[in-house]
Amino acid sequence: MPEYSAYLYLCFPIPYTFALMKVAIYGRDFSTKLPARQEAHTDSTADALQTLFTRLDKAGVEVLVYEPFLKHLGKKIKAKNTFTKHEELKGKVKFLFSIGGDGTFLETVRFVRDSGIPVVGINTGRLGFLSGITKEEIEPAVDALLKGKYSLDKRTLLELNIKGKYFSECRYALNEITVQKTDSSSMITVHASINGKFLNTYWADGLIVATPTGSTAYSLSCGGPIVMPDSDNFVITPIAPHNLNIRPVIISSHDVITLEVEGRSPHFLVSLDSRSENVQSPVKLSIKKADFLFSLVNLEKQDFLLKLRSKLHWGLDKRN
């Protein structure tokens, strides 16, 4: 056996243990988009996916592709192995690659869950806070992964507890859990409590409960603070509150938040990251920290503070 291992090592440019590696690739099905925009996005994503396929194939890595994503790409990409459920990945793949924007990255939570599978974000979208690898960086990024030159950034997840069949597939969120009104006219009333103690009644368009990861997303656009990823906190941010003296609140991630929603409409909208459902009132929502963490892959040159400066254009003089 030692002689056989040495033979494989000499014949292949990478250690033969990588030849046994299996990874998964996830992307969105954009079939509901406008045709022109859909075609442009498809071409960009297909190019990135082909580059990734080629590099992984050279390394002898087995690849599984999300089946609806592969069907969306049509004849642009050919792949033999597919997946549709998280059970097909748990304990079977080394990495999950997300190809798209941050919204696509967030959807990988449904497939990773408590499996501990690290997620690698390849950005074919716009901002790319979570999907930090550009199309031009795909090949060196794969090489770095194969050589073990990366770190795992452990991120906190939110867990929703609600009666009924809402979000029965997956009740976890990486960025935020949001309650919002369903129409454009009247506000909703949100009674919020922390660990059973009354916090405040919000008359607003909605309310966001965000993780540190989500503090640079929807919460930030509504005036919430930026929270460092390793902070053990959550942020409660109102959306267009009626009372102008209402401000975001930072709480411990060990707290349990309870929300009771009422309004003129019999329904309101609940969102877990990019997944939304209409919920009938009255109902009580309980939000707490999930009992497992999400693993985000950081390459050696990736840094949160660098992302803040580059993505938010801090320190740049726009007058020139």
Structure description:
With 320 residues, the chain is α+β, with helices and mostly antiparallel strands. It has 2 domains: 2-148, Rossmann fold (3-Layer(aba) Sandwich); 157-290, Sandwich (Tumour Suppressor Smad4). Helix content is 22%, strand content 33%. The chain has helices at 2-11, 35-58, 67-73, 102-107, 109-112, 138-146, 218-221, 304-311; strands at 22-26, 62-66, 82-83, 96-100, 119-123, 150-161, 172-173, 176-180, 188-194, 197-204, 206-210, 233-239, 249-252, 257-263, 267-272, 275-280, 284-299. The protein has a 6-stranded antiparallel sheet with strand order 7-6-17-14-9-10. The chain has a 6-stranded antiparallel sheet with strand order 13-12-11-8-15-16, with no helix packed on it. The protein starts with a helix and ends in a 9-residue tail after the last helix.
